Amino acid sequence: MKIGELAKLAKCSTETIRFYEKRGLLTRPDRSENNYRHYTKQHLNRLLFICNCRILEMSHDEIQILIAIMDNPDNQGGHDNAHNLLANHLHHIDERIEELTKLRKQLIKLQQNCHSADQSCGILQEITDMPITNKIIKSHV
C-alpha cells in the first residue's frame, strides 16, 4: 500500500509516518520502480502500535524501548523491562495529575478572587503579580 493508504488506515498524517520513519520507530519501506513507498501489513501494525502508545502519552524514547522488546521476543528481560517502563510512565502520569490538580485549584482561586472595581481585569493583574514559585506546570519528558 502507498503512504496515503497507510495514513488513512492508521488515522494519521503522511507527515507523521515520515517522521516516525526518520526517528527509526517505523522501518523504512521498500520502494517501487516509480520510487513510491510500498508499505506492508507489518508497517500498519507497527504504526498502529506507535499511535496507540502516543495516545497513552508515551514518549518516543519509551516507544523505542517497547519496540526493541517486541522485536526481540526471546530476550528474557523483555517482560520485566516493559513492566518497569510502564511503572515509570504511571509515576510520571501521577506527577502530572498532581501538578494539574494544583493548577486547577490555583485557577479557581484566581477566578474567585477577581473583584475588580475599576475597568481593569483583576485576573490579569493577579497573574502578573503571582510569585514565580507558584507557577507549577512542568513539561513531561
From TrEMBL:
**What GO molecular function annotations does the UniProt record carry, in alphabetical order?**
DNA binding; DNA-binding transcription factor activity
Which portions of this protein are annotated as coiled-coil regions?
A: 93-120
Q: Domain (HTH merR-type): give its ranges.
A: 1-69
| Gene3D superfamilies for the chain | 1.10.1660.10
Q: Which UniProt keywords apply?
A: Coiled coil, DNA-binding
Q: Which Pfam family, any one of them, does this sequence belong to?
A: MerR_1
Output the PANTHER family linked to this UniProt entry: HTH-TYPE TRANSCRIPTIONAL REGULATOR ZNTR (PTHR30204:SF92), REDOX-CYCLING DRUG-SENSING TRANSCRIPTIONAL ACTIVATOR SOXR (PTHR30204)
Protein name, UniProt field: Transcriptional regulator, MerR family
